Amino acid sequence: MKSSFLICLVLLACAPAAAQSGGGFNLEQNVIGNGGWRSDGGGFTVLGTMGQSNSGSTAAGGRFHLIDGLWATENQAESSPFATVTGRLAKQDGTGIPRVLVTITNANANFRSQTWTGAHGEYRIENIPTGANYVIAVSHNNFEFEPASIALFISQDRSDINFVSPHP
What we know:
It is built from 1 helix and 11 strands, in the order H-E-E-E-E-E-E-E-E-E-E-E. The chain has one helix at residues 2-19, and strands at residues 38-41, 44-47, 58-61, 64-67, 82-91, 101-106, 111-116, 122-129, 132-139, 149-154, 163-165. The strands form 4 sheets. A 4-stranded antiparallel sheet has the order 7-6-9-10, with no helix packed on it. It has a 3-stranded mixed sheet with strand order 8-5-11, with no helix packed on it.
């Protein structure tokens, strides 16, 4: 009886090692980390912490907005040394807001570019050096925007970087 118990105990101890060895596997765009789905604190919320469980999506809170995570999935096309960012600024009802100042900056690279939104609230900023983090901020005397700025990593052209005013 005692020997059969000892044999079972040894088999149980060896089973995890046998289960984790051998066999092929393929790991594609998966993240192993101690992440979570949501982290809150003060006026800020991050979705996809540490393990970046939802990279490539949006994290926002208060007056801050972050797009992408540590492992963002991007188009694998041949890259360019410069990118273009486009988007639209609108009221909640979807009406575009003209004459909004849009500024993109990278303090580390001493880069700054500005443009004004067009008649329908659209904007386009070209010749942005790729491979760096940028902050895109918007400013208008009569409107506030949620978010007021967006931080993102630019390694290729980015479209639909939009801002919405919570005021009608």
